[in-house]
Amino acid sequence: MKFIKKPVAMSIAGLDPSGGAGLIADIKTFLANGIYGMGAVTCVTAQNTIKVSSVNPVEPAVLEDEIITAVEDIKPNALKIGMIGNADLIKVVHSCLSKIDAPVILDPVMISSSGTPLLEKDAISELKKLIPGISLLTPNFPEAKFLSGSDLDDPAELARIIGEKYGTSVLVKGGHLSSPDDLLFYNGSIKKYPGLHIENPNTHGTGCTLSSAIAANLAKGYNLPDSIRFAKEYVTTIISAGLDLGQGSGPMDHGAAIKGDFTE
Ligand code: PXL
User: Fold this and answer.
1) Whose CA is nearest to atom 10 of ligand 1?
2) pLDDT single digits (tens) 42-84
3) Ligand 1 center to residue 2 CA distance, Å?
4) Count of alpha carbons within 13 Å of 42, Cβ hemisphere only?
5) What is the value of pTM for the model shown?
6) 205: CA distance to ligand 1 center in Å?
7) What is the DSSP string of 26-46?
8) Quick one: which of 181, 188, 194, 234 has its CA closest to 211?
9) Which of 94, 76, 44 lies closest to 212, judged by CA?
10) For residues 198 and 233, is the Cβ–Cβ distance under 8 A?
11) What's the pLDDT at 178?
């Protein structure tokens, strides 16, 4: 037997049992991007492609035990943080960061694609305390406007304002009214990733998947701009695969690029 090591990424995120978003999407993404995936659940949601019917946060001590026990044994090379849910859970995640020596990507999830709040209102100030010290923040346009506190509609300006305010790199995701492009603020300058329009309304979990694909690429050792470029190519590929499940905005085919002895 020849023993091997692999890059490892961990996701700390909410559970979407319909499998399109959150922790399940993240783990599929890690697998499809060639790395070993670990995951700690923050909230158990009940949802499908049309609605979120409940959100149940885990006990803070449970989340702490999940994270610490996993990472004291297997060290992640990158960490993705998605939906956290409430202030007490954010405090736990914050305190666990000192035990993890890896780049951290924070997707500041606030509202589900179907419009349900996924972060309690009083948790925003705690979330803001988490941002300095992370490697990359990936807000969508409404989240970027909110976190910047700005009235501007230019996503590049929002990325710069947030990046300078918190001392971190920021990717403002397009696809909202403002711009189809993704705008990265990195090392003091702006880089544009052109948006592609793909004729597929099934995009549930796109944000979760993009941030976990970026984490996978960072775990493999790519720099941040390349990690984002490859992650966008991955998301484009799995949207273009045309999976059509559920009655609402359905999930993507995370495994579309995996071909092997067991996929037929
Ligand atoms: O896409 C945001 C998001 C993140 N995490 C979980 C979700 C969703 C959207 O529905 O369910 C668990």
Assistant:
1) 112
2) 999 999 999 999 999 999 999 999 999 999 999 999 999 999 9
3) 39
4) 24
5) 0.97
6) 6
7) HHHHHHHTTSEEEEEEEEEEE
8) 234
9) 76
10) no
11) 58
